[in-house]
């Protein structure tokens, strides 16, 4: 007897949460800073004839925010799941180069430098050299092959192959080596190096020729492995160096930049732009704090009356409509629904921004009253989310790419967030505050006898910051402050 196989079918229930088109629109508008929102509104006005500028005198056209699924309601969703619904092209990648003005005339303008890439700066240096056409082409290609940190991680052999295949230029490895030497003479020193050792040696080579420079070269050239492993005694023994000469050389080496290209983009400005705050936060004489949104160039929106009248007319004559009339009514309804949805989304964005900024001000009230950075308390996204009832991902979107003008300057919203350090007694201290005190202690120390990490730990404990020595060492490293023996 042949026994047939049986298929077992089972059913299971699974709860899947999806985002409506309205929720997706709300999220995308929420991410926009003021200047991007203005562009988005003008684009919508051009695209949808049912939407127009102007204040609506009716109260039924703009729904209250609680009628819209999303923030602070039972329909609240994880906005990070948007990636399941949007293509890569749909996800905004906003730049922090421009901001817009608000109705508040007190909004200040802060110069912001539009940066030039180190690639363009190296081409400027290349144009100053007297090279033949072949050398110029090879050098320019090598510049384009550098990583963002200014180092060359491709082999000259592979670059030679690329030139032959993609550009049609024949170049030997020796020719490329010669052109690379040209780049290695550019500023800042260290560009064009193929590894960290070569990067450091190039920077040392650019220094004034002194006995100390020779010691630095010997350490990196002859004792590089010991240097990376911090085997200082082996280096001193191998090079027969005194403690004083060794410490001076190491102190100079630690000042070198292992990523020379990264120092160029953010510090060199070509044209001046302005950062315009998204919020205006004012502290009054009576210690009250007011918050206003930056909306000066953002128009008010309303439904086009003609579209509503036409839709009402088509609806009255629904019984005797032709196919063309039905299509026209469908078109009118789609445009009106889209316009209403956009107005609702803009209003919900404004409400969410104001709610979030109010929570930040409440949590960081001492800073907004005094302007002292050390008064900033530890605060993470979760703290604001719990205070507002919004999702953490919503707070993240609000705080990203947004700025607030205060009585003490313009700050990115991310500035107000910082980690905290919890003592054994459960007391929460601001990491930013601890670092500030630590730096002040080191700045005031006797440079002939710098403070050790143990001594810094004791001083901080006396000042009311009972943290461990290893934590002091970690914060010191994060401040790019060397150990005591290298600070002499």
Describe the 3D structure.
This protein has three domains: 19-113 and 276-418, no CATH class; 117-267, no CATH class; 420-486, Orthogonal Bundle (Arc Repressor Mutant, subunit A). The protein is built from 19 helices and ten strands. It has helices spanning 21-30, 34-47, 118-127, 133-145, 156-167, 173-183, 196-205, 211-222, 224-228, 232-239, 243-253, 305-316, 323-363, 365-370, 381-388, 392-399, 431-443, 453-462, 469-478; strands spanning 51-53, 110-115, 269-275, 279-283, 289-293, 301-303, 403-406, 409-412, 420-422, 428-430. A hairpin with a 2-residue loop joins strand 7 and strand 8. The N and C termini lie far apart (94 Å).
Short description:
By secondary structure, this protein is α+β, with helices and mostly antiparallel strands.
- Quickly count the domains: 3
**Helix fraction?**
40-55%
User: What is the mean predicted local confidence, pLDDT?
Assistant: 76
H and E string: HHEEHHHHHHHHHEEEEHHHHHEEEEHHH
Structural class estimated from helices and strands: alpha+beta
Our count of helices gives 19
Uncertain parts? 59-115, 265-273
Number of strands: 10
List the helices and strands and how they pair.
Layout: H1 21-30, H2 34-47, E1 51-53, E2 110-115, H3 118-127, H4 133-145, H5 156-167, H6 173-183, H7 196-205, H8 211-222, H9 224-228, H10 232-239, H11 243-253, E3 269-275, E4 279-283, E5 289-293, E6 301-303, H12 305-316, H13 323-363, H14 365-370, H15 381-388, H16 392-399, E7 403-406, E8 409-412, E9 420-422, E10 428-430, H17 431-443, H18 453-462, H19 469-478
